Amino acid sequence: MSIHYIELAASALTPLTDGAIVYKGAETNLGGDDADDFDQVPTAGHGETIVSVDLSTLPPGTYKWVRASLTYQRYEIDYRYNNPPYAENVDLSGTSVVCWI
Fold first, then answer.
1. What does the DSSP assignment read for 33-68?
2. For the CA atoms of the chain, what is the radius of gyration?
3. Is the pTM of this model over 0.85?
4. Are 10 and 19 in contact (CB under 8 A)?
5. What is the residue extent of each domain of the chain?
6. Which end of the chain is less congested by CB atoms within 10 angstroms, N or C?
């Protein structure tokens, strides 16, 4: 898992990017529109720190909202379906989309 963007906002009506941007990861436009560059952003497993930020560098203020954009990966997977008596050892493939919010 990784994170692409963290912003602190004073209210729900604060326009996107008008809050205090805490972190913004790498982007690419190789596929067309701008997108997260998952190969360049820091990743972490369960219980690990993804990004550490010194909060004293942020503008003073009261922030009631945290906006975060988490990244995910998509995998092609092969699997076996086994549910006797309906089906036994049926080999299938599919797409797995992993996303944490």
1. S-EE-TTTS-B--TT--S----GGGSPSS---EEEE
2. 20
3. no
4. yes
5. 2-71
6. C
How many residues would you count in the chain?
101
> Integer distance in angstroms from the first to the last C-alpha of the chain?
10
Three-state DSSP state, 11: coil
Q: Which residue has the tokens 């369960």?
A: 46
Note down pLDDT in tens along the chain; length 101 residues. Answer: 678 889 999 999 999 999 999 998 888 888 788 777 777 877 777 888 888 889 899 999 999 999 988 776 666 778 888 887 777 888 888 776 544 44
